[in-house]
Amino acid sequence: MKHLLSHLFKKLDGLSTFPFSCILSFMQTEFSFDEMKPKSSGEKIIVYTDGGCWGNPGVGGWACVVIAEGEARELSGGEKLTTNNRMELTAAISALSAIYNTERLRNNPIQVNIDSQYVKNGITSWILNWKKNGWKTAAKKPVLNQELWQKLDALNSSLNVEWNWVKGHAGVEYNERCDQLCQIEMSKLK
């Protein structure tokens, strides 16, 4: 596992100046947990995510911890100029992409623990009206981060996901770890 993650981080470090879509494309097409274990027990996968920014917009970082098959796996990355909301969305997309790309985990129930009301409410409630209204808000303005919402919606629709809000900076172990990873990623780009 350490070899796979260090390989991933080396690839992502080299891509840190590439556009965001390139990193997401890499995550969605190449990374999975398939080489780690041969088969899943079907038990619930627990995910924690976080995103952050120094300035908004500013240097941003995202991170997720995916707990599956008795192991906690960490993924993280960042961008030089982004927003907090984009990083929160990216963390969720990255976690669900890794699970979706791991065929033996794809059918497991997933609990995403997220400290962003924006992402939790967006994916569980607001998105229904956004899609019905042609990706416009109730105020008839274009939905911000539409391309990320569409990716998250596709993943959410393809997987069995339960969304759970957790309070940030409240001592929740893996949420705190995600925050630490975000800070590390942002410091690399400062």
Helix and strand content put the structural class at: alpha/beta
Q: pLDDT average, as an integer?
A: 84
Distance between the termini: 28 Å
Give the SSE order as H and E letters. Answer: HHEEEHEHHEH
Range of helix content: 40-55%
Instruction: Report the biggest beta sheet as strand number plus sense, adding barrel if it closes.
Output: 5 strands, mixed
Gyration radius from CA atoms, angstroms: 16 Å
Q: How many DSSP H or I helices?
A: 6
Total number of beta strands: 5
Percentage of β-strand residues: 15-25%
Task: Describe the global form.
Answer: globular
| Spatial strand arrangement across the major sheet | 3-2-1-4-5
Describe the structure.
The protein is α/β, with parallel strands linked by helices and 190 residues long. It is 46% helix and 24% strand. The protein has a 5-stranded mixed beta sheet with strand order 3-2-1-4-5, with helices on both faces. A hairpin with a 2-residue loop joins strand 1 (45-55) and strand 2 (58-68). The longest helix is centred in the middle third of the chain and has 17 residues, at 84-100.
